[in-house]
Amino acid sequence: MSLLVLGANSLIAQATASHFAEAGHEIIFAGRKQDEPEKYANDFSIRYKVNCRAEYIDALDYPTHRKFVEDVLSKTPQLDNVLIVFGYLGTQEKAQADFDEAHRIIDTNFTGVVSVCELLAAEFESRKKGNIAVISSVAGDRGRQSNYMYGSAKGGLSVYLSGLRNRLSKSGVNVLTVKPGFVNTPMTYGMPLPKPLVASPEKVGKDIFKAMKSGKSVKYTPFFWWWIMKIITSIPEFIFKKMKL
Length: 245
Known about the structure:
Oligomer: single chain
CATH superfamily: NAD(P)-binding Rossmann-like Domain
Strand content: 5-15%
Radius of gyration: 18 Å
């Protein structure tokens, strides 16, 4: 049993991986900066007494993704769990004025994920087993003026994962879309967020682990975000346009 983590620097990824490690899974940490995955791999191997290693991947370097997947599978031919946590919040105002920023937001949160996900999906489909979990966001459920560039990338990702899940279900491969709300991570540091709605990475990681193990399709975390987003998405457009969201 093994878990490949794409986006090793994420606190959510590390929290999720800790539960897999406790269950005896081999952990492969992959990230853009080689020293960080190595640090986590060394830490986990000592703390949890499981096999761990580090790999390098750049979400935006698409031509290298095929070789990355091939290398991972050559070293871990029985890979059965993947967690993709690529993400970049960016700045909405900057993205409106500078397409380079918009491009980075869209490509990190959507295009880079799709690139590597398709390669892994093909492998799992051929085996007729596997578990792919991808971090999307509640921000993708409805466009808001405050973060519609990030939200649109995550919204597109959620639709992509829905289609992929439909395709792979025939092969016994599960695809989990994770939709966190506010999480206390470096991405949200300094933001004026309502404290009762902010979850810890540990809480989100535990929810992801349980959802992957139970074969869920979509997981809002914490659970109350399902209700919040039901309300937000039900607001008529003519009213929503007047709200400062």
